[in-house]
Amino acid sequence: MIGAALVASGALLVVVGTFGIMRFRDVYSRLQASGVSDNAGLALVLLGLVVYEGWAPMDWTLLFLLLLMLVTNPIATHSIAKSAFVQRHTGEDPT
Amino acid sequence: MSAIEGIILATTLPLLWLFAKAPTAWDRLVAYNSAANRVTAALAIASVVLNRAVLLDVAILYAALSFIGVVALARFMERGGGFR
Q1: Which residues lie closer than 8 Å to B4 by C-beta, 6 or more apart?
Q2: Is the pLDDT of residue A95 over 50?
Q3: Closest CA–CA distance from residue B66 to any residue of chain A (Å)
């Protein structure tokens, strides 16, 4: 029950973040909206899956996947933002 | 639970549209990164729903490979390569 509620709230955050990515007009704004959906939403989904199935050997793999995504998502976001910033990208001219 | 998986997979469709139609290369990279994370979460949900532990290994491998690809492309465009 609690696990299903966590997964449902995570899916709600994913939907909200998708609207943000589609609506914003800048790379940096899109990165912020993707932070909402990717870090918070998908971490809530994976935590809800750990709680949902009770104790099982699958939980350790789920927790490892959660740790992996929590470590790698900010690195990918920072890498994209630094790449756009170093190239003097303002988001106004597509060229 | 599988309805939630359907919702998460349905949110990848506008991201794929953005991946095709975004104005700059960084927008396309953001769309690809976000869609890959959604596919990873959908694989995790499918492994719990179908009770197959193998799909979790596939999800971990997918997350690691998409991370390596995104960081490599970002570093490549940081040095001035690729399409603008």
Answers
A1: A7, A8, A11, A45, B45
A2: no
A3: 10
Q: Does A2 touch chain B (CB under 8 A)?
A: no
Q: Which residues have CB under 8 Å from B73's CB, separation 6+?
A: B29, B82
Q: Determine whether the interchain pair B29/A80 forms a contact, defined as Cβ–Cβ distance below 8 Å.
A: yes
Q: Indicate the residue of A62, A80, A89 with minimum beta-carbon distance to B44.
A: A62
Q: Tell me which residues of chain A, numbers 14 to 43, contact chain B at a CB-CB cutoff of 8 Å.
A: 14-15, 17-18, 21-22, 27, 30-31, 34, 37-38, 42
Mean pLDDT of A62-72: 93
pLDDT score at B22: 86
Give pTM, 2 decimals. Answer: 0.88
Q: Give average pLDDT by consecutive 10-residue segment, chain B, 84 residues.
A: 90 93 89 94 92 92 94 89 64
Question: How high is the mean pLDDT of chain A?
Answer: 87
Residue ranges per domain, chain A?
2-86
Q: What are A30's two structure tokens? A: 């899109």
The radius of gyration of chain B from alpha carbons, rounded to an integer in Å, stands at: 15
Q: Which residue of B has its CA nearest to A51?
A: B48
